[in-house]
């Protein structure tokens, strides 16, 4: 048992803190609030410093560090609200590609590491965010597969060169890489609550080459689960930074704000609500550390990831509301940075499983365990 | 980061789990059904504790010079977890908090008799801090110790002195300087043998367990029983409270309750002929318990690790205290809901489930949020030390 970060992890963390600190002041962030939350200058800086290649194989020009190290960068992005699509590109798409993709499919990773291209994953369909049970269908045809269906809330779908998609076929699940400019694909922008660029993607008899198929059957289920669990855990890591910063903004503000001739932080009712948020964030941090660490070591983590994401859903919601409440009017003013954290809190809370749904799934898993003892 | 036990730590965990089965004999379990002996004190308890001393377990984390094994903080936590999981009312505060203070500050004679006795499982010590007028505001205590030619003359009353009905000594905080400007200054620590004629006690039957009121009337105490520097007892008191906070929220006892309720729900059929655990609301309750339990476990492990690395932040023990105790209270409710009304049947009655443990535990659990440092005070500590918020006054 060792909770210490390695020296190289600490270096990566320091580097991320520094890059984000330089490019995430409130004035700067404002430019991207209504513009995809994507700062191309920041993204290319992240590429130049090697951050984008942290968990990409050295063969492809990356550094080859593990998922846990990548999550340290993601936590800092959450803390600073950096407008950079780290989770969709580096976690949801690049990690499964590196693990399950063919050599030809993986050749794009070098350009991902330098920041020259974005890739993404389409997990969700309307009323269904489980990539293992899609309604989208795939059928074998001459020279490849034909795909039909509907994906939505695809992060950076309009900017991505390749999008990982799962579909149901007579041979089981199929996981494949789509190029959005393929014939039969129609992308429409969706307005997400956080401002993150998302796309509604209709697929009408889209032809996919055999070369773009990544996995079929149980292999495809493994690959999509791999992508899903790491994305859920990364959302938790993002939330650790995000909620920690919200509590600290709140502590700082209430320590200055005066009403009834005293700093409002000296009211026990205020201090205790902040203390409860502090405890919540610590719980989220611990649950996340465990899930991330297990995934990093490729150990069984099914329950741990669900538990972390349940904490994530609860803590993002509670911390956001407590912070807004304790700030009073200034908190909702878009000239003050808190509103951005609140929007992302709701986005993350409901992405890939809210707490009620995951509690139910975890409960089923517990029942199965004890019934089979 | 690696948040799993090493093979050596796992082996230790299993070794203690197996060992504790021999201590929690059926005779011990039977003895604990008597409310008088629930927290120890009966002949079987004494026998078990002595055996743990002889087998070297009490000295696990102690230095070699005391016959100890110098276990790390993590190993000691594993021991605590397994002992608490077994249900044996082990006197942790005697062995882990007061024992080390006596070893550090006591005379050679105290070390030879009391400390050795603790490590052999012969000596149990009760804590005499709280008074009718000094609870959360502990420094307001009034019990007085005056220096005289024969040592110290002590007068006063303590309350909630748990274990005092069977312990061998009382670890007593008393005021030795009534003129001290700050009230936490001017306090000193004493070890009072139970057979001193100035000592007496009466039982207090609480919602959960038996505790005691204790009385010190013209109690004459030899100098050797005054421990640590005179008028500087506050440091010894607060050092011990932090340890107490951590041992309060150990995840071992909740883990076994959760497993036992889930096992019961899987093995028991409802009136629809299906296992109780197949009901969605039962699954949700168990999932809520497990979600909180995982964090409690990792939180405790991380604090044990931080103690070992000497980097435990001041607010961390308070975070564990508030989170753990409020979670415990919630867990009892979630698990009792699974058992339904049957959960309220006492252990000795027909129809009781899981030996009535939940019926008993929720009653005992009602002290958790205010005992060992009231949770409101812990939240004050968290907002000040964790978030640098200014304090009232």
UniProtKB/TrEMBL annotation, chain A:
<keyword id="KW-0285">Flavoprotein</keyword>
<dbReference type="InterPro" id="IPR013786">
    <property type="entry name" value="AcylCoA_DH/ox_N"/>
</dbReference>
<dbReference type="GO" id="GO:0050660">
    <property type="term" value="F:flavin adenine dinucleotide binding"/>
</dbReference>
<comment type="similarity">
    <text>Belongs to the acyl-CoA dehydrogenase family.</text>
</comment>
<keyword id="KW-0560">Oxidoreductase</keyword>
<feature type="domain" description="Acyl-CoA dehydrogenase/oxidase N-terminal">
    <location>
        <begin position="7"/>
        <end position="116"/>
    </location>
</feature>
<dbReference type="InterPro" id="IPR009075">
    <property type="entry name" value="AcylCo_DH/oxidase_C"/>
</dbReference>
<protein>
    <recommendedName>
        <fullName>Acyl-CoA dehydrogenase</fullName>
    </recommendedName>
</protein>
<keyword id="KW-0274">FAD</keyword>
<dbReference type="Pfam" id="PF02771">
    <property type="entry name" value="Acyl-CoA_dh_N"/>
</dbReference>
<dbReference type="GO" id="GO:0003995">
    <property type="term" value="F:acyl-CoA dehydrogenase activity"/>
</dbReference>
<dbReference type="InterPro" id="IPR046373">
    <property type="entry name" value="Acyl-CoA_Oxase/DH_mid-dom_sf"/>
</dbReference>
<dbReference type="InterPro" id="IPR036250">
    <property type="entry name" value="AcylCo_DH-like_C"/>
</dbReference>
<feature type="domain" description="Acyl-CoA dehydrogenase/oxidase C-terminal">
    <location>
        <begin position="223"/>
        <end position="359"/>
    </location>
</feature>
<dbReference type="Pfam" id="PF00441">
    <property type="entry name" value="Acyl-CoA_dh_1"/>
</dbReference>
<dbReference type="InterPro" id="IPR009100">
    <property type="entry name" value="AcylCoA_DH/oxidase_NM_dom_sf"/>
</dbReference>
<dbReference type="InterPro" id="IPR037069">
    <property type="entry name" value="AcylCoA_DH/ox_N_sf"/>
</dbReference>
Automatic annotation (TrEMBL), chain B:
<dbReference type="InterPro" id="IPR013786">
    <property type="entry name" value="AcylCoA_DH/ox_N"/>
</dbReference>
<keyword id="KW-0274">FAD</keyword>
<feature type="domain" description="Acyl-CoA oxidase/dehydrogenase middle">
    <location>
        <begin position="126"/>
        <end position="219"/>
    </location>
</feature>
<dbReference type="InterPro" id="IPR006091">
    <property type="entry name" value="Acyl-CoA_Oxase/DH_mid-dom"/>
</dbReference>
<keyword id="KW-0560">Oxidoreductase</keyword>
<dbReference type="InterPro" id="IPR046373">
    <property type="entry name" value="Acyl-CoA_Oxase/DH_mid-dom_sf"/>
</dbReference>
<dbReference type="InterPro" id="IPR036250">
    <property type="entry name" value="AcylCo_DH-like_C"/>
</dbReference>
<dbReference type="InterPro" id="IPR009075">
    <property type="entry name" value="AcylCo_DH/oxidase_C"/>
</dbReference>
<keyword id="KW-0285">Flavoprotein</keyword>
<dbReference type="GO" id="GO:0005886">
    <property type="term" value="C:plasma membrane"/>
</dbReference>
<feature type="domain" description="Acyl-CoA dehydrogenase/oxidase C-terminal">
    <location>
        <begin position="231"/>
        <end position="385"/>
    </location>
</feature>
<protein>
    <submittedName>
        <fullName>Acyl-CoA dehydrogenase</fullName>
    </submittedName>
</protein>
<dbReference type="GO" id="GO:0016627">
    <property type="term" value="F:oxidoreductase activity, acting on the CH-CH group of donors"/>
</dbReference>
<dbReference type="GO" id="GO:0050660">
    <property type="term" value="F:flavin adenine dinucleotide binding"/>
</dbReference>
<dbReference type="InterPro" id="IPR009100">
    <property type="entry name" value="AcylCoA_DH/oxidase_NM_dom_sf"/>
</dbReference>
<dbReference type="Pfam" id="PF02771">
    <property type="entry name" value="Acyl-CoA_dh_N"/>
</dbReference>
<feature type="domain" description="Acyl-CoA dehydrogenase/oxidase N-terminal">
    <location>
        <begin position="6"/>
        <end position="122"/>
    </location>
</feature>
<dbReference type="Pfam" id="PF02770">
    <property type="entry name" value="Acyl-CoA_dh_M"/>
</dbReference>
<dbReference type="Pfam" id="PF00441">
    <property type="entry name" value="Acyl-CoA_dh_1"/>
</dbReference>
<comment type="similarity">
    <text>Belongs to the acyl-CoA dehydrogenase family.</text>
</comment>
<dbReference type="InterPro" id="IPR052161">
    <property type="entry name" value="Mycobact_Acyl-CoA_DH"/>
</dbReference>
<dbReference type="InterPro" id="IPR037069">
    <property type="entry name" value="AcylCoA_DH/ox_N_sf"/>
</dbReference>
């Amino acid at each position: 048992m060792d909770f210490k970060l390695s020296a190289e992890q600490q270096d990566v963390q320091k580097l991320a803190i520094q890059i984000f600190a330089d490019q995430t002041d409130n004035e700067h962030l404002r430019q991207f609030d209504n513009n995809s939350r994507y700062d191309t200058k920041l993204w290319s800086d992240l590429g130049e410093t090697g951050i984008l290649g942290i968990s990409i194989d050295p063969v492809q020009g990356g550094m080859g560090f593990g998922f846990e190290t990548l999550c340290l960068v993601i936590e800092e992005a959450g803390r600073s609200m950096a407008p950079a699509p780290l989770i969709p590109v580096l976690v949801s798409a690049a990690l499964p590609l590196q693990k399950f993709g063919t050599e030809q499919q993986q050749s794009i990773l070098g350009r991902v590491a330098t920041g020259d291209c974005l890739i993404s994953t389409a997990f969700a369909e309307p009323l269904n965010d489980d990539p293992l049970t899609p309604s989208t269908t795939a059928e074998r045809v001459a020279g490849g597969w034909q795909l039909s269906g509907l994906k939505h809330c695809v992060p950076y779908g309009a900017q991505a060169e390749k999008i990982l998609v799962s579909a149901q076929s007579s041979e089981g699940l199929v996981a494949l890489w789509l190029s959005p400019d393929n014939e039969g694909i129609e992308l429409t922008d969706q307005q997400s609550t956080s401002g993150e660029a998302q796309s509604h993607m209709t697929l009408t008899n889209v032809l996919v080459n055999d070369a773009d198929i990544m996995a079929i059957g149980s292999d495809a289920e493994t690959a999509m689960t791999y992508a899903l669990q790491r994305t859920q855990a990364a959302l938790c890591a993002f939330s650790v930074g995000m909620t920690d910063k919200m509590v600290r903004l709140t502590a700082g503000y209430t320590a200055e704000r005066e009403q009834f001739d005293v700093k409002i932080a000296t009211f026990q009712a205020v201090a205790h609500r902040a203390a409860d948020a502090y405890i919540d964030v610590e719980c989220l941090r611990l649950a996340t550390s465990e899930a991330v660490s297990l995934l990093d070591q490729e150990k069984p983590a099914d329950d741990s990831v669900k538990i972390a994401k349940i904490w994530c859903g609860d803590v993002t919601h509670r911390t956001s509301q407590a912070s807004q409440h304790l700030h009073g009017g200034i908190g909702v003013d878009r000239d003050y940075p808190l509103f951005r954290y609140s929007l992302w809190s709701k986005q993350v809370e409901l992405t890939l499983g809210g707490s009620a749904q995951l509690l139910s799934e975890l409960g089923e898993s517990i029942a199965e365990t004890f019934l089979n003892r | 980061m690696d948040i799993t036990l090493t093979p050596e730590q796992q082996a230790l965990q299993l070794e203690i789990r197996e060992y504790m089965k021999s201590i929690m004999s059926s005779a011990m379990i039977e003895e604990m059904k008597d409310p008088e002996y629930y927290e120890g004190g009966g002949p079987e308890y004494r026998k078990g504790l002595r055996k743990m001393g002889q087998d070297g377990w009490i000295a696990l984390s102690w230095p070699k010079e005391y016959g100890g094994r110098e276990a790390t903080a993590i190993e000691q936590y594993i021991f605590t977890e397994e002992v608490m999981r077994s249900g044996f009312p082990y006197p942790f505060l005697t062995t882990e908090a007061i024992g080390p203070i006596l070893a550090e500050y006591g005379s050679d004679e105290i070390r030879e008799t009391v400390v050795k006795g603790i490590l052999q499982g012969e000596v149990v010590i009760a804590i005499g801090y709280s008074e009718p007028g000094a609870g959360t505001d502990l420094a307001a205590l009034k019990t007085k110790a005056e220096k005289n030619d024969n040592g110290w003359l002590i007068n006063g009353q303590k309350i909630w002195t748990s274990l005092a009905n069977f312990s061998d000594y009382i670890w007593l905080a008393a005021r030795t300087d009534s003129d001290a400007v700050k009230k936490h200054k001017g306090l000193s620590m004493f070890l009072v043998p139970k057979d001193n004629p100035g000592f007496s006690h009466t039982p207090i039957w609480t919602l959960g367990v038996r505790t005691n009121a204790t009385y010190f009337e013209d109690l004459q105490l030899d100098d050797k029983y005054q421990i640590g520097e005179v008028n500087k007892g506050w440091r010894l008191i607060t050092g011990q409270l932090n340890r107490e906070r951590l041992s309060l929220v150990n995840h071992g006892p909740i883990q076994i309750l959760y497993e036992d309720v889930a096992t019961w729900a899987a093995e028991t059929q409802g009136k629809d002929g299906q296992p109780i655990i197949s009901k969605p609301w039962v699954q949700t309750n168990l999932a809520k318990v497990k979600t909180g339990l995982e964090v409690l476990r990792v939180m405790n492990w991380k604090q044990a690790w931080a103690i070992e690395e000497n980097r435990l932040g001041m607010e961390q023990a308070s975070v564990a205290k508030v989170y753990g105790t409020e979670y415990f209270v919630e867990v009892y409710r979630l698990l009792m809901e699974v058992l339904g009304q049957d959960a309220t049947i006492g252990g000795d009655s027909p129809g009781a489930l899981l030996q009535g443990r939940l019926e008993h535990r929720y009653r005992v659990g009602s002290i958790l949020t205010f005992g060992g440092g009231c949770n409101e005070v812990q939240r004050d500590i968290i907002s000040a030390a964790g978030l640098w918020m200014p304090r009232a006054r």
